[in-house]
Design goal:
Bound molecules: adenosine-5'-triphosphate
Shape: globular
Largest sheet: 10 strands, mixed
Number of domains: 2
Order of helices and strands: EHEHHEHEEEEHEHEHEHEEHHH
Strand order of the largest sheet: 2-1-3-12-11-4-5-10-8-9
Structural class: alpha/beta
Length: about 350
């Protein structure tokens, strides 16, 4: 498996360094034959090449079997004409990574504030209320007068259909329950279509129970009883917000692993941002990126029918849970270790597992 590795901004270089060590160890243990191609995106690339991402980098990831993207200083990249392209958007759009899969669960060893739960947010990734990915050219936010702004939200049949299918397929491997999250009471046409299409796709999966919630009420339900949810399917912006909530409920944003998957490509990426407030201090939690790397292994293994990759993912998740239970982790999840030391503890435990 050829993997392009892009450490990113803020805490990215620290957490990616640990993740790379884990990937090397996992490759060795499970004979995965991973080859890692290290490159740059974000500020590092802007300094070096005058742009946060380049056409050469895109060609490289298109030819690879997957990529790991560190967190990006998205908020600081404002002017595309000066090379400040949002790398997350760039790869999601260029590689058509339409499904952002964001699991969240509770762990032994962490305070369970709202009861145990294990759910996955399946978030559409390529349209919705994101001004930078809706148009063929230009953005979908317009300054009408200095005091008036219009922001457009695009919803298409194709994108609703494929995200719904991803959710139902995933539900078939889990508890067979899909919750549709929407705002169809206000966005009647767009979210009305989203709900209809989810139900249409759902009819192909008669074993799966379907329910739906308006997004504002959903926040209350998740906070009240997260255990009642399994797979949650929703549009881009709602999924982004909801999945930060579910990651934090699981213990910390630092546990928010995710992949962005399309028909041909996939990208492992932590659900959180670049966390500039804690960058460079060796305190960031590397688990979100390690979980993302594990999910990427699994995605590849399932596509290529290579069970060793799927097993590697399962073991990575187990080792991570063991580390948390033993408090061998960073302080955001109740430990006392630094980022690097957490990586060392992880590798030690990984060593004890049979291949
Ligand atoms: P950005 O502008 O890149 O989105 P941000 O700080 O606004 O960055 P996040 O990076 O998502 O948003 O961080 C939100 C909060 O969660 C911050 O207080 C940050 O320190 C914390 N946080 C995020 N990721 C981690 C992590 N891996 N380990 C520990 N804390 C984290």
């Amino acid at each position: 498996m050829k993997l392009v590795v892009l450490p990113g901004d803020g805490i990215g270089p620290e957490t990616m360094a640990v993740t790379v060590e884990v990937l090397k160890a996992v490759s060795e243990k499970f004979s995965l034959g991973l080859s890692l191609d290290h490159d740059v995106a974000g500020h590092e690339s802007l300094k070096k090449y005058g742009a946060t991402v380049t056409p050469e980098l895109l060609a490289k990831v298109q030819a690879a079997d997957g990529m790991m993207l560190g967190p990006m200083s998205t908020y600081e990249f404002k002017d595309e004409s000066r090379g400040e392209i949002n790398p997350s958007k760039f790869f999601r759009k260029s590689l058509d990574l339409f499904a952002n899969i964001r699991p969240a669960r509770t762990y032994t060893g962490l305070p369970v504030r709202l009861g145990e739960f294990d759910l996955v947010v399946v978030r559409e990734n390529t349209e919705g209320f994101y001004a930078d990915r809706n148009m063929e050219s230009g953005g979908s936010e317009m300054l009408v007068t200095p005091d008036v702004v219009v922001s457009l939200r695009r919803i298409t049949r194709l994108c609703c259909e494929r995200i719904a299918r991803s959710a139902f397929e995933l539900a078939m491997t889990r508890k067979k329950h899909v919750t549709i999250v929407h705002k169809a009471n206000v966005l009647r046409i767009a979210d009305g279509m989203f709900i209809d299409i989810c139900h249409q796709v759902g009819r192909e999966f008669p074993e799966v129970t379907i329910d739906d919630f308006i997004v504002d009420a959903m926040m209350a339900h998740v906070v009240r009883a997260p255990a009642r949810f399994d797979v949650i399917v929703t549009t881009n912006m709602f999924g982004d917000i909801l999945s930060d909530l579910t990651a934090e409920l699981s213990g910390s944003l630092g546990l928010g692993g995710s992949i962005n998957a399309g028909a041909q490509h996939a990208m492992g990426q932590a659900a959180h941002g670049s966390a500039p407030d804690i960058a460079g201090q060796n305190i960031a939690n590397p688990f979100s990126l390690i979980l993302s790397a594990g999910m990427l292994m699994s995605w590849f293994g399932q596509r290529k029918a290579l069970p060793a990759f799927v097993r590697a993912h399962a073991v990575m998740e187990q080792v991570l849970a063991d580390c948390i239970a033993a408090h061998e982790c960073t302080r955001d999840v109740g430990g006392k270790l630094g980022t690097r030391e957490t990586g060392v503890a992880f590798l030690k435990r990984l060593d004890q597992y049979p291949a």
